[in-house]
Amino acid sequence: MRLDVLTIFPDYLAPLDLSLIGRARRDGLLDLRVHDLRDFTHDRHRTVDDTPLGGGAGMVMKPEPWAEAFASVVAAGRAELGGDAEPLVVFPNPAGAPFAQATAQAWSERPWLVLACGRYEGIDERVYEHLADAGLEVALASLGDYVLNGGEVAVLAITEAVVRLVPGVVGNAASLVEESHSDGLLEYPLYTRPATWTDPAGAVREAPAILLSGDHGKIAAWRAERSRERTAERRPDLLARREAPAAGDAPDTGHGR
Ligand code: SAM
After folding, report:
1. What residue owns the CA closest to ligand 1's atom 23?
2. Which of 74, 100, 138, 189 could make an SS bond with 251 (beta carbons 3.0 to 4.6 A apart)?
3. How far lies 12's CA from each of 3, 67, 136, in Å?
4. pTM of model > 0.70
5. Whole-angstrom distance, CA of residue 133 vs CA of residue 200
6. Cα 167 to Cα 109: distance, rounded to the nearest angstrom
7. Atom number of ligand 1 nearest to Cα 58
8. For residue 224, how many C-alpha atoms fall within 13 Å in the half-sphere facing its CB?
């Protein structure tokens, strides 16, 4: 999979050299490139922002550097990937569609994502129109109903959620199957050794005996029950959605803005 990230803070993406994502890059499963948006400016101050037309607080990202950056990154990707490779262009945006596990799954199956980090009050709206008119597929993805300072943290989260689903990135693929949100439920509680643990306050805490029984059928049934119980308690909205999915529930999987 190829990922191009556009940002005015390339150093923010340094953690993508670590852990499973770093290893995926070294193993050739992920070709991740970070581009500095300021490299696509032409003034002495490398300006990427200006005051909002119509007035108001804050600054807005100018369209010209974005258009140039996309032209360059998309042309390079097309040339290097060859064939009819086309990216999905993702803008993290609090006003976008919720980014969910289904989105991560769908995007993990794509060969190429371009992730564009907004800053300030956001990006001039005409950039989205320009990309759509140029025939690029564009998705706006929100991490949640809160506002971050910039898209970099969102890109880190999106990259981690997407790339870990690319075959070969997580060593044991089975560990992806029963996770929270993989089937619309939260994961069951987890335990490891010692089966009997005396906590620092002196309380003796036993792991559930069923997990030591060796009876895989019973363990699976126990886990399914706990999973459902936990979901009902913590996220009744997920259970309701699972039982009666509404049309508006589908996360954005990148089919148009
Ligand atoms: N003025 C914008 C609004 O009210 O919708 C918020 C802009 S925010 C300060 C700057 C950038 O942070 C956004 O362009 C986006 O890239 C990123 N961002 C902020 N909150 C986000 C969220 N919940 N999900 C994804 N990206 C977010």
Report:
1. 94
2. 100
3. 15, 22, 26
4. yes
5. 62
6. 9
7. 1
8. 7
